[in-house]
Design brief:
Structural class: alpha/beta
Number of strands: 10
Order of helices and strands: HEHEHEHEHEHEHEHEEEHHHHH
Shape: globular
CATH topology: TIM Barrel
Largest sheet: 8 strands, parallel
Strand content: 5-15%
CATH architecture: Alpha-Beta Barrel
Helix content: 40-55%
Radius of gyration: 19 Å
Strand order of the largest sheet: 1-10-7-6-5-4-3-2
Number of helices: 13
Length: 355
């Protein structure tokens, strides 16, 4: 599937910039797939006004690919249908992004499966390609791009990603079937590498830039990045974020406000910069930055559990739980920054979403 074969709304929305939450996996107490709460999550995201949903990525737990669980195909197939149903009910078409992992044979097979299940793009993780040469990485990407439009993924090394230099992103941006890049190294130097590479490839108008830097969301969306020797600038237009899988209604509102400021060229209000630090502080608690992100997924689950959108914080790996003191940190940021949450929005609609 090529970009020009996608439904008409997809490319325009991605290029314009939108909110794409990285959806968690809903499990029951027995750690089996929980379709009722998974459907509720999707309804929540769609009614919050997101432009897309990403499935089978880090927050959906890479372990779904483990043959012992056998969840990758059943979950991504079910979620694709659930997104279509929620989108039809809300009359709001949704960009569907599926995660792609593994060595080349696995990644190509996953991409082919996603295309067959109606996904519009594949988010390509290169974590399994650690130790590969630059040319091997690029050949891998080209092979996968033959199956489905790609969203590149610079995953931070702290959660399994590999360092990808400017030279990789410069060549990656030239692959015709690349739709966007999620920049998530949690590192300013490496973030600039990606922006500069896309501009130097002359693809800044065709390859959309999305932040995955959950620790730097606001400033990423406000910044005009210098590129091309200062001859031009580029902007990050949206986010594909684990942080936006919680408090999503507020994320949609924040994204719209930040894009308005960026487009206007107006000075950034000091209050927005204060908000940026509040959101980063909240993210530190939810993602468990103090413990090297060990409790990242359970932290996301905990927010959704408190709202009733998930039944519990269970992960496929029983050892993956909230870190000591993490619940108290989440208590602290929820009390400190109530304007970041969308509890009232969820409370009013939750019975309908769970029906």
């Amino acid at each position: 599937m090529r970009i020009d074969e996608l439904p008409g709304f997809v490319k325009g929305r991605v290029i314009e910039g939108t909110v794409i939450p990285a959806i968690p996996l809903a499990l029951d107490r027995g750690r089996a797939f929980d379709p009722t709460h998974q459907r509720a999550l999707i309804r929540y995201y769609v009614e919050s006004g997101v432009g897309g949903v990403a499935v089978g990525v880090h927050t959906t737990q890479f372990e779904i690919r483990d043959p012992r669980h056998g969840l990758f195909k059943p979950v991504l197939s079910a979620v694709s249908r659930m997104i279509d149903e929620a989108a039809a009910a809300s009359r709001a078409p949704i960009v569907k992004v599926g995660g792609i992992c593994g060595k080349t044979a696995q990644a190509v097979a996953e991409a082919e499966f996603l295309a067959g299940e109606g996904y519009h793009a594949g988010l390509l993780s290169l974590a399994a390609m650690k130790g590969s040469s630059l040319e091997e990485l690029l050949e891998h990407a080209r092979r996968v791009a033959d199956m489905i439009p790609l969203i590149g993924f610079y995953l931070q090394p702290a959660v399994g990603g590999i360092i990808l230099p400017y030279e990789f992103w410069r060549a990656f941006a030239e692959i015709p079937n690349v739709l966007a890049i999620k920049i998530a190294p949690f590192n300013r130097y490496r973030t600039i590498d990606v922006v500069r590479a896309v501009c130097d490839a002359g693809r800044e108008a065709e390859v959309a830039l999305y932040t995955g830097n959950d620790d730097h969301i606001v400033v990423d969306l406000l910044t005009a990045f210098p590129a091309g020797g200062g001859a031009k600038t580029a902007r990050i237009v949206g986010g594909l974020l684990g942080q936006w899988s919680v408090w999503t209604k507020r994320a949609v509102e924040l994204h719209a406000a930040l894009r308005d400021i960026a487009r206007s060229g107006a000075d950034v209000p000091a209050s927005i910069l204060t908000l940026a630090e509040a959101l980063t502080d909240a993210n530190a608690a939810i993602f468990d930055a103090a413990n090297g992100f060990a409790g990242c997924i359970p932290g996301i689950h905990e927010i959704l559990r408190r709202q009733g959108l998930l039944a519990g914080t269970w992960c496929l790996d029983p050892a993956e739980t909230l870190s000591p003191g993490q619940a108290e940190e989440i208590d602290r940021v929820c009390a400190a920054y109530p304007d970041l949450s969308d509890d009232e929005f969820v409370r009013a609609r939750l019975p309908e979403w769970l029906a």
